[in-house]
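Module 6 notes. Inverse folding takes a fixed backbone as the condition and produces residue identities as the prediction. Think of it as a translation problem where the source language is geometry and the target language is the twenty amino acids. Below is one complete input and output pair. Work through it position by position during the lab.
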C-alpha cells in the first residue's frame, strides 16, 4: 500500500512538472512573438517619401520646349488604400514629400499606391481641361497625369510609379496662303469640345508667336467633321473641320495639324501624330 501511494505521488509530481514546462513554453512564446518581431518599425518614424525623375524628350514629339517637368510647389495626390494625401514637389523639382505623409509600419510591408496630377481629393473619372490655356498655369494644369491603379511598392525597394498622360496634346500650325499672305493678328480657338471646364471652347497656349504655333491639352474625344479650329482674322471667322479619323483624339497621343487661311476658309490636314513619348514622370519611393 505504501509503495502504491509513493508511486502515485511520483506520477503526480511528474504530471505537475510536465504542466509547468508546458505553461512556461506557452508563456515564453507569448512574450517574444510581438516584441521580438524584427520587421516592426517605430510608429510614425519612417515616412513614405518620393523622388521623381523625368525622362528625356524624344525627337518624335514636336513639343514647344521639351518634356513636362515638375515645378516647385506642384501638388500631387497620392492614394494608399482609400486614403488620399497631398504631396508637394520640392524646390529642386525632384523630391516629393508631405506635411502629413503615409508611414511604413513594417520592413516587410508592401503598399498599393495610385497617384495623379494635378491634386484633387478624389481621382477624376471624367477629365476636364481648362478653357483658358493661354495662361501657363492653366496650360500645365490641363495636362492630367496618373499612374496605374494600385501599383505595388515595398519598403526599402527601388519602387517606380510611372505616370502617363491621360489627355491628348494638339498642336496647330497656322499658315498664310497665296490668297491671304498676312495672318498677323489672327486669333485662334478650339471649339465645340467636350471635357472643358465651364464651356466648350479652349484658348490654346501660344507655343511660338512668330511661327504661329499653338498647343492645347484636350480630353479624349472625336472631333472629326466638327468645327474644330476657329480663326478670327480681319473681322472674318474661318473654321477647319478634320476629315473622318483625323479628329480622333486619344489619351497619351499627340497631334499636329497644318492649317492655312484662304479666302474660301481654312484648309488643313493632320500632319503628324503618334505616342506622346518621353514626357512621362517616373517616381521612385525612397525613405528619408
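Target side of the pair, the amino acids:
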Amino acid at each position: 500500500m505504501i509503495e502504491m501511494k509513493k508511486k502515485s505521488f511520483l506520477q503526480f509530481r511528474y504530471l505537475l512538472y510536465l504542466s509547468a514546462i508546458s505553461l512556461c513554453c506557452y508563456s515564453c512564446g507569448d512574450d517574444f512573438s510581438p516584441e521580438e518581431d524584427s520587421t516592426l518599425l517605430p510608429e510614425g518614424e519612417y515616412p513614405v517619401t518620393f523622388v521623381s525623375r523625368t525622362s528625356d524628350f524624344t525627337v518624335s514629339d514636336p513639343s514647344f520646349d521639351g518634356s513636362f517637368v515638375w515645378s516647385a510647389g506642384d501638388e500631387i495626390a497620392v492614394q494608399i488604400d482609400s486614403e488620399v494625401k497631398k504631396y508637394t514637389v520640392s524646390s529642386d523639382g525632384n523630391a516629393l514629400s508631405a506635411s502629413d505623409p503615409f508611414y511604413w509600419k513594417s520592413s516587410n510591408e508592401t503598399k498599393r499606391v495610385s497617384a495623379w496630377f494635378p491634386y484633387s481629393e478624389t481621382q477624376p473619372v471624367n477629365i476636364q481641361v481648362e478653357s483658358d490655356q493661354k495662361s501657363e498655369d492653366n496650360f500645365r494644369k490641363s495636362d492630367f497625369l496618373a499612374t496605374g491603379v494600385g501599383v505595388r511598392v515595398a519598403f526599402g525597394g527601388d519602387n517606380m510609379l510611372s505616370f502617363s498622360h491621360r489627355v491628348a496634346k494638339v498642336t496647330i500650325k497656322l499658315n498664310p496662303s497665296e490668297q491671304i499672305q498676312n495672318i498677323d493678328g489672327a486669333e485662334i480657338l478650339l471649339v465645340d469640345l467636350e471635357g472643358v471646364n465651364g464651356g466648350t471652347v479652349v484658348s490654346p497656349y501660344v507655343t511660338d508667336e512668330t511661327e504661329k504655333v499653338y498647343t492645347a491639352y484636350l480630353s479624349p474625344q472625336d472631333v472629326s467633321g466638327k468645327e474644330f479650329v476657329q480663326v478670327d482674322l480681319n473681322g472674318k471667322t474661318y473654321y477647319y473641320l478634320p476629315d473622318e479619323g483625323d479628329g480622333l483624339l486619344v489619351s497619351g497621343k499627340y497631334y499636329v495639324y497644318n492649317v492655312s487661311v484662304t479666302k474660301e476658309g481654312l484648309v488643313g490636314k493632320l500632319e503628324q501624330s503618334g505616342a506622346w513619348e518621353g514626357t512621362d514622370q517616373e517616381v521612385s519611393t525612397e525613405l528619408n
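Reference fact for the lab report: The first helix runs from residue 2 to 35.
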